[in-house]
Design goal:
Length: 227
């Protein structure tokens, strides 16, 4: 029997149930496989991770492909929509020069590759690297006037590969679409230290024993078969 309140309002009584089937089907449909490692190369988007154990395995092609959950795949796709929207904005601003520009850097056996999100014409800097990132509100607040270390590395690699002086990292808060953009100046001393780190990892006969990631539980070195 309908409730008295629903009869008085002239509206049908609302009843609902959780439909787990649809959620499960959507999760499977959205799930995907991430890339594994390519032997003989480091990757610019991951080398900022402080875990040398991870990079030792990655350089040797031992990092397997990763099954991405539906939720994580949707988060990555959200980042992709940021790029698509930004391409429209940059075109409207008449700043866009190029998108998804592949770059590489080689120093002896140290090889690292990446992909620049955008090249733009900056009013003060001229032709400039622009790297985009999406982040939640907690992470957005935690930036506190500077980009994340791993993203600084990424842009430093692009600057070195292109022999450029300054690049930009632009963060979008995916909860409310606020934007923070930072300049990253080329730092040759920093870059040389990273090249030396790469050579040191390559020269290791065996991987480091411990994970040095800030969040070891989530580091991809945990997915490597070390047997």
């Amino acid at each position: 029997m309908a409730s008295i309140n629903s009869i008085r309002s002239g509206q049908p009584e609302r009843k609902s149930q959780v439909d787990t089937w649809f959620n499960e089907e959507l999760e499977e449909a959205c799930s995907s496989w991430g890339f594994g490692s390519v032997e003989g190369h480091f990757n610019a988007s991951t080398f900022g991770n402080p875990c040398d154990r991870l990079h030792w395995a990655s350089f040797r092609g031992k990092l397997p492909k990763k099954k991405l959950t539906g939720k994580f795949s949707r988060l990555l796709q959200h980042g992709g929509t940021f790029e698509e929207r930004m391409e429209k904005y940059l075109t409207k601003m008449n700043l866009l020069k190029a998108r998804e520009v592949p770059v590489s850097f080689t120093d002896s056996d140290f090889k690292i590759t990446g992909r620049i999100d955008f090249l733009i014409t900056h009013i003060n800097l001229g032709l400039t690297v622009l790297e985009l990132k999406t982040i939640n509100s907690k992470g957005f607040r935690a930036l506190k006037g500077k980009p994340k270390d791993e993203h600084i590395f990424q842009v430093q690699m692009y600057l070195e590969a292109r022999d450029s002086d300054t690049g930009l990292i632009s963060y979008e808060n995916k909860d409310d679409q606020d934007i923070q953009t930072f300049r990253v100046k080329r730092d040759k001393g920093y870059w040389q230290s990273q090249v030396e780190r790469g050579h040191s990892i390559i020269d290791m006969v065996a991987p480091p024993e411990k994970c040095e990631s800030k969040y070891p539980r989530y580091c991809d070195c945990q997915r490597v078969n070390w047997d």
